[in-house]
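Annotators were shown the component list below and the corresponding predicted structure, then asked to write short factual statements about the assembly.
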Amino acid sequence: MILAVCGKGGVGKTTVSAIAAQALAEKNGLRALVVDADPAGGLGMALGLTPRRTLNDVRKEIIEEVKEGKRDKRDLSVSLDYLIAEALTERGNMAFLSIGRPEDEGCYCKVNVILKDTIEGLAGRFDATVIDAEAGIEQVNRKVISSVDYMLLVSDTSAKAVRVVETIKDVADRMIGNEGAGLVVNRVRDRAEIEGIQSGTALDVIGWVPEDDTIRRFDGEEKSFLELPDCPARAAIRGALVRAGLL
Amino acid sequence: MALFDEQLGEVRRVLESMSAGGAARQFAAGARELWDKGSTLVLQEDTALEMGNPSVASLSLLLWSEDGGVEDGRITLVGPDVGEALKSGSLPFAQVVIVDGTFESEYDSYRDIRDAVYDTRLAGLSIRTMPSKRTLWCRVGRDAADKGLSLIDLGAALIDSVKRLEEVGSAEVVFVTSSAEDVRRLTSPAASAQRLVDAMMKMYQEQNFDCETCEYQDVCDTVMDLKKIRSKLTDSQD
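Structure shown to annotators:
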C-alpha cells in the first residue's frame, strides 16, 4: 500500500506524514518504508532519523559509474540496489529514505526513471509506504509519484491551501488515476472552521487536526514524533487513517 | 593461459596460507538439499547475522580457469559459519566463485556467469552487490538462521546456478569470514581481476581500439587472453 501525503508548503504535511508512518508501522508490526520526497527534507528530523546519504547521493554515484563506462546495465542495476540499501535508515520495522536535493546540472532523465523504478520495486517489498511529497503539484505533474494507492491531502484552514489540494487532486486524477484520496485539515481552531471548509469543497474531508501544544513543543525542541505521546493531533491523524480504511 | 590464471594462482596461494593454520574446512555441495530460492528483504531488526556490512571488510570475486584446475562442487569455508557466529552479529565476508569450462566468447561467458551469481537468491537471505567496489553485503534473517541456513547452502546454490550454464564444466566456492585482515588479503587479486574485466568490458562496449589513449593498455599488453580478445574484435571490424 502506497500512501502519498501532499499539500501546499507549510500546512503540516511532514507532521502528518510522520504520525501516519508511525501509525502504519505499529499496525500489527507492518514493515513501513517512509520516503521524504520533499527536497526541503524535514521528515528525517520529524522522525529523529538522520540519513547517512540521500537518494540524490545515490543518483550522483550511479551517474559517475555510467560516465566511467565500465559497467553494463546489469551491474548498474545491482549497484543501485546496494546503494539504496545503504541509504536506508532503519528503526525497528520502519525504513527511511530521503530524496535529498538535486544540485548538479544536466538532464539525467534515464537515471531518474531507473531510480523511480527501483523505489517502486523497493516499496513493493514493504507492507506500507508513506511518501512525504514535495509541496505543491510539481511531483504529481512530473509523475514522480505514481502507483499511489491513497493520496492524503493536507491543508490548513486557509482557502489558498484548500485550493492547492483541490488542484493536486484534479491533476492526480488525470495523471495518476490513484485509487482514493481524502483531505485532512490541520490546525483547526473550532468546529465552525471545519464546517466552512466542508461546505466549500468537493473533497472528502476525512479528518481535522486541532491546534496542539504537544506538536508545537516537539517541533520547537526538534524531538522525534516517534516519541510523541497520546495527544489530540496524533489521535486525529490516526482517526483520519481509520476513516480512510488505512488503519 | 586463461584470462584469470594469475589471479587464481594468487587466490590459491592466499587460501593455502590461511588453511595452513587449520582454519579452512571443506564441504561437498551435493551433500545437502538445496535451500529454497527466494528474494527476501531483511531489515536490521530481523537480522540474525550480517556479513560484509559496508563498514567492515567485504569482497566478491569471480574467476575462471580453462585447465581443469577446479575441484567441482567443493565449498571451502575459512572462518565461522552462520550458526557459529550468531552471537557476534556481524562478520567480515569474502565470496570467491571459481569456475572451469570452455569460454569461446569471454565477454558473453563472463556476463552469463556473473548474472548467474547475481541471480542466486535464497529465502531468508538478503544479498547486495556493489560491482565497482567488489563488495557483497548479506543479511541472514532470524527465521532462516533458526532453520539452519549455512554458507554451505549459499555455496551449493551458487555452484548449482553457474553449472546450469553450458560453458561451465565445474565450479567451486570459497568463503572467508575469519577476519577483516584475511578478507583484505584477497583484495590484490580481486583488484587485478577487476582491471581485466573492466578492460574486457570496455573493448566490447566501446569497440574502440585506439590503444595509445586507452587506460587499460598496460593490462592488455600483459595479459595474453586480452590481446587475443582485442585481435578478435579488431579482425571482426575489418
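Statements collected:
1. The beta strands of chain A are 2-7, 32-36, 89-91, 94-98, 128-132, 150-155, 180-188, 205-210.
2. Chain A has one domain: 2-243.
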